[in-house]
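Batch 3, record 17
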Amino acid sequence: MLDTSGHPMHLPTAPGVGYKSQHFQAIMDDPAPVAWLEIHAENYMGDGGRPLAQLRHLAERFPISVHGVGLSIGGEGRLDPEHLARLKALCGWLQPASFSEHLAWSTHDSHFMNDLLPLPYTATTLARVTDHIDELQEALGHRMLLENPSSYLAFAESTFSETDFLTEIARRTGCGLLLDVNNVFVSATNLALDPRAYIDAFPLAQVGEIHLGGHDEDEDDHGAPLLIDSHGRDVADPVWALLDHTLQRSGPRPLLIEWDANVPDWPMLAQEARRAARALEKVAV
Amino acid sequence: MTISQTCFRDALFDRAKPVPMGLQDGQGLPAGRRFNVYRNNVAVSLTEALELGFPAVKSLIGKENFRKVSGLFLRQTPPSAPMMMLYGKEFPDFLESFAPLSDIRYLGDVARLEQAQREAYHAADAQALAPGALARLQPDTLAQSRFRLAPAIRLIRSVWPVHDIWRFATMDGAPKPTAQAQDVLVTRPEYDPELLVLPQGGAAFVAAILAGATLTEACEAGEINAEAFDLAAMLGLLLQSGAIIAVEPEV
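Prediction for the assembled complex:
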């Protein structure tokens, strides 16, 4: 386990948004109420140009959270050493306030599938994910946050609940957790679970960040609701209610609005961030 | 029973394969079309990455055809790394060898021009040589110098009017291309790639510079390819576009 006592990294307990380059000027002009920004690590792994120039400007003014979407921590194979080196280089020069990745896999046989794919929760996968997180934290030299996935199906072979699995990973590796409340709502709806019971079973003390995003509605072969984690619209009301339930138990946490498809103009995104700010005010200590 | 990631991946990419056994809904029923969410996410997200990178190709063959071709390409050549900004390096060659599109013989070169612009956009930053720097060198010294070009520089040589086709496909009101060969230099003066159609002999000159030739050698390469190769005009183009980042006199 990594010794992370006294590490300086932390995000403000305030609203942040997933950064989109079309919002650069609006953010530089008037970011309120947004206090921090999250970037997808893989979009900033070019050698230079405008993306990195913008990021350098933003990093002078805002705490930055680096959110990886391509490390494949849940993969059967070993972590890609080249990708690990790219992450290390990015975090090295940027010195982000946080680094997070997903409980998922996306690469197999050096094929990257550009999606967060699910894994069963077993003793075998627990050992594998734990090893990968140990390796990543060792390479980065600090603690990471691991995010709970959106699930559309379950594995018959699983022997752990997702909350038990995440609890055990955090205990073994010392990593923190990124709680995506929309993912909880999506997974609970899709797998006929109680989202509040999921939150109540979640190790909230380890949560360093909370995600909120929009989902789409579909249905499965039997007409049961099938929610899709699209990040293409505003956050649904029941997800805001689930956030309130969470914050009452966890206390204030850094809150992030993710809006990656059909990206709105800045005022609309800022409006979502204001709603997040109000949710935090309700539990202000 | 354990579902291997090989089995999961193969079923993701091949819709004819059955959904792996042991995937289920909340009641323990077979996952069925729930698995298609992952199939769709993979196919749609990779297709979108290609659409973003190759808008002229998309415009030339139409959205539906582009989607079909992308679907074949992404199964044959999935990304080898998680950076989507450059996914599709092999797409130009794929298009060129794809029989149903063989009538559109310039498609591969248009795709190469688009990939070159993506690469230029993400290339390392470099300080361009000051415009007066060449004038300070003795003519003999200059003649034996080698030039270092910016990391963003890309050279696309084509027997097709590749620049005009690209412009016609991506810009409203651009004139219809007429038959001619075009060599295009991709430069990046600041952050946005710019395209320069090179005069005759220009591509041979730039190719020689990129290969490490001296100015004299590069000039000879240009002259072989064009009787009226204009070195001063060519150097002017390179300097104005910030393409030259260093002059290294021969020691």
